Amino acid sequence: MIHDDKMKVLNLIFIHVVPYNTIVNASECCNPVSLRASKHNRIIQSQSVFLRHNTGRFSKSFLLSRQQKTIHVANAVSEQVGSDDTSPQNSSPNALDAFYRFSRPHTVIGTALSIVSVSLLAVQKLSDFSPAFFIGVLEAIVAAFFMNIYIVGLNQLSDIEIDKVNKPYLPLASGEYSVKTGVIIVSSFALMSFWLGWVVGSWPLFWALFISFLLGTAYSINIPMLRWKRFALVAAMCILAVRAVIVQIAFYLHIQTFVLGRLTVFPKPVIFATGFMSFFSVVIALFKDIPDIVGDKIFGIQSFTVRLGQKRVFWICISLLEVAYGAAILVGASSPFIWSRYITILGHVILGLLLWGRAKSTDLESKSAITSFYMFIWQLFYAEYLLIPLVR
After folding, report:
1. What is the dihedral of CA 3, 4, 7, 8, to 10 degrees?
2. Which of 12, 40, 303, 375 is deepest in the core (most CB within 10 A)?
3. What pTM, to 2 d.p., does this model score?
4. Any transmembrane segments, and where (predicted)?
């Protein structure tokens, strides 16, 4: 028994201390040696089996350790290579691209075109195209651009987890921007917008910015009684109020009363623009949720798409726009100016036909196809602002 205990102790020391190669060599030569001692044959045979078993375990552990080290080195190398992308020559393009996606450029373009379009409705004669007019339009565009960045940025800050599902390419959802960076950006642009509106001194412009700020905040921010985007009807009303009413009325009055110094009047083109864009704003509010149905369901956003289904909401949007185009054709036909009559009728007929043709060919089972169609609606939105100044 004492001999057996000594052998076990020696065996454990042998396994844990002797290098791997020595163990392998020992396992190859221990059997001939053990055969020379017959009275210990059974003991030494069991030792040989024990050694071979533990040698296999040690070998597997050693190889696994080598693999893990190899993977660790490979990851370190890849991280080092990836870090080269943040070098000075690449950091600027990456930063610009991230800010471009953060700003949601299709909304910025829509805002700029709408301001230019409704500003032209205040023009009555060629002499109105003065330096003061162009400066006034530029001031409105820049101030509205700053507020636009605040609104879309706040929406992304409030929807980081949802955007990881619906829009993972946005900088906050992808991790390119930290929450702190997002807060700094939206805060800075809100302050710059209000500062510019105050410096300009135009009350229509300032109120346009202030009301947009209030509605944009209430729409997105996740605090009690707010985050109105959770409620489909209220969310649609927010977008309608900004896109259809504030943009048309406030920026028109900015040029009409502040820049040109005329009385407050609302001619036919302004009324038409407000009514038509009410339809368009509702469509944008409804359609923007169609591609986002998966994330909205997960996070409990009760959009019309979640409640009614993608196909039904899609065709509701198409119907609303076709009704708007039909009304625009009637308004164009009532114009006393022949050139305005033909341009507005033909323009809206073409846009209505393009919309119908594209809608019939859209695959509603494909998220990419629906997203592409949503961008097409924004293109129709831009085109309408090219026609609105021609409505007389």
Report:
1. -150
2. 303
3. 0.73
4. 108-126, 132-157, 177-198, 204-221, 233-255, 270-287, 313-333, 339-357, 369-388
Q: How far apart are CA 392 and CA 62, in angstroms?
A: 84
Q: Is 158 helix (H, G, I), strand (E, B) or coil?
A: helix
- Which token pair is 197? 């509106």
Residues 284 and 381 in one domain: yes
Nearest-angstrom CA–CA distance, 29 and 31: 6
Give yes or no for a contact between 363 and 369, defined as CB atoms under 8 angstroms apart: yes
> Could you tell me which of 111, 141, 118 has the C-alpha nearest to residue 248?
118
Q: Determine contact, residues 361/372, Cβ cutoff 8 Å.
A: no
User: In this predicted structure, what is the pLDDT of residue 91?
Assistant: 61
Q: What is the Cα–Cα distance from 284 to 384, expressed in whole angstroms?
A: 14
Q: What is the DSSP string of 229-283?
A: GGBHHHHHHHHHIIIIIIIIIIHHHIIIIIIS-------HHHHHHHHHHHHHHHH
Count of domains for the chain: 3
Structural tokens at position 203: 């009350």
Token pair belonging to 70? 């190899």
Mean pLDDT for the chain?
81
The one-letter amino acid code at 118 reads V
Rounded distance, CA 360 to CA 374, Å?
14
